DNA sequence: TACATCATGTAATCGGTTACATGATTAT
DNA sequence: ATAATCATGTAACCGATTACATGATGTA
């Protein structure tokens, strides 16, 4: 159900066609949600049937583009969703991390390649997200200008800051992944291609509570 | 296809039944991948048909538990996946972040509630992931002991460190989300319930990319 | 006895992906 | 003329979620 609200949210500041939404979603202002055209077009039709958005095709337009706008009802529904209490946190499902968890049996060269790909991936995203955040601060982002157009003068700084913080979260995530990968690569450099390691980057934590990692049973005696 | 390898990876150190995998996946050693029983059981059967795992039901077991072990073929397939070049980074699809992006029209009380839920969510995960990491360092995690059992003495430190780093990534992500939310809450405190804001946490970035070849623009005065 | 938990499944459904179809416009 | 891009879709499929079914074991 989140694609629905991602589309609605996008359209709430800037009317757009399905094609434009697809483009922007792929790499643009909607860098938080990716979707394929085959999912976007039917969803827009459903949204229109619900009366949350309204599409218009200009009869003179030979490309029969359908440009959608959010209705008053749609705006209310978006605000209800945004303000809702149900957490939208998705289930933990991090395939790359799982891969890394089981990479210890691979050659160090394989581990290094994995980390370099990880780096490349997040460096690209960092650049993209940072550009968005900076454009919002600088006031050069088009959608942000649309948003501020119908906004009381005294609230403009507030709205801009909230939008910045949204992208700031993504920026920090990318930065974290990059420093994580770099740290491991630096550690692997010290190890010099051998798994016979003495240099340990982790020290045993001081236990403050006898809280174990797996079961609540302490290791006093194994069952059976 | 990742559930397949998550299951395979888990079973590669510790034989387990479908039920146990479901439990561990929900909140345990497999805190990186969540799955429902209705997905786990059929996948295990498929894996068995492929010959990657082998299940045994003890005839004396009235609960007819089916305990699976990874075969030699399964271990090879797992290593092939782990070492694979295709990036398993999922499409960007962060519903909570999208929500925050469109929260600027809501009351500040609503924004605060949203951030408090965000905090609660990641504080819980942080505790869970930190416990795992610490248990691995301390050598008290059961699955880690299984992994180290058939491991040459001189490689134990290496393997332990890799596993730690895997959970360290999750720990840092949770820490980032927590400090992100706290920062925004602190900013909202300064604002004191009004959207008429003067306190700006972001300053306009120095432009480096669009170098127009003239004088450097010093601070643009407040975004529009 | 009744209820919670252990343990394994099936069926319907939903969201997301891949593949394919169709036609118009713009650039080479 | 050809290719690339604009623009909107349909169909088949796959992975994940919800709901439901079944029976055994352990505990109040």
Structure, briefly:
Helices cover 58% and strands 5% of the residues of chain A. Chain A is mainly α and 224 residues long. In chain A, strands 1-3-2 form a three-stranded antiparallel beta sheet.
Oligomer: homodimer
**C-alpha-based Rg of chain A, rounded:** 24 Å
Write the element-wise H/E pattern of chain A from the N-terminal end onward. HEHHEEHHHHH
The structure class of chain A reads mainly alpha
Q: Could you give the distance between the termini of chain A?
A: 48 Å
Domain count of chain A: the total is 2
Largest sheet of chain A: 3 strands, antiparallel
- Strand-residue fraction of chain A? 5-15%
**Strand order across the largest sheet of chain A:** 1-3-2
The number of distinct helices of chain A, counting runs of at least 4 residues, comes to: 8
Structure, explained:
Two copies of one chain form a homodimer. Chain A has 224 residues and is mainly α. Chain A folds into two domains: 2-83, Orthogonal Bundle (Arc Repressor Mutant, subunit A), CATH 1.10.10; 95-191. Chain A is built from eight helices and three strands, in the order H-E-H-H-E-E-H-H-H-H-H. A three-stranded antiparallel sheet of chain A has the order 1-3-2. In chain A, a hairpin with an 8-residue loop joins strand 2 and strand 3 (66-70). Mean pLDDT of chain A is 89; it is low at 209-224. The interface between A and B is large, with 94 and 97 residues.
């Amino acid at each position: 159900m989140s694609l629905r609200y991602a589309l609605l949210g996008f359209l709430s500041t800037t009317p757009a066609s399905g094609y434009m939404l697809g483009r922007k979603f792929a790499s643009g202002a909607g860098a938080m949600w990716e979707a394929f055209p085959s999912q976007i077009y039917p969803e827009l039709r459903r949204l229109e049937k619900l009366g949350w958005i309204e599409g218009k095709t200009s009869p003179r337009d030979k490309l029969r583009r359908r440009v959608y706008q959010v209705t008053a009802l749609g705006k209310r529904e978006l605000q209800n969703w945004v303000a809702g209490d149900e957490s939208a946190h998705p289930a933990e499902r991090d395939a790359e991390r799982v891969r890394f968890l089981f990479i210890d049996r691979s050659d160090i060269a394989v581990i290094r390649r994995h980390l370099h790909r990880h780096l490349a991936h997040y460096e690209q995203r960092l650049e993209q997200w940072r550009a968005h955040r900076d454009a919002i601060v600088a006031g050069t982002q088009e959608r942000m200008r649309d948003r501020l157009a119908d906004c009381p003068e005294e609230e403009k700084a507030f709205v801009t800051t909230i939008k910045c913080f949204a992208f700031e979260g993504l920026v920090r995530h990318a930065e974290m992944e990059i420093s994580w990968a770099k740290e491991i690569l630096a550690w692997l450099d010290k190890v010099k291609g051998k798994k016979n390691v003495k240099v340990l980057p982790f020290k045993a934590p001081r236990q403050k509570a006898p809280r174990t990692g797996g079961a609540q049973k302490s290791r006093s005696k194994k069952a059976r």
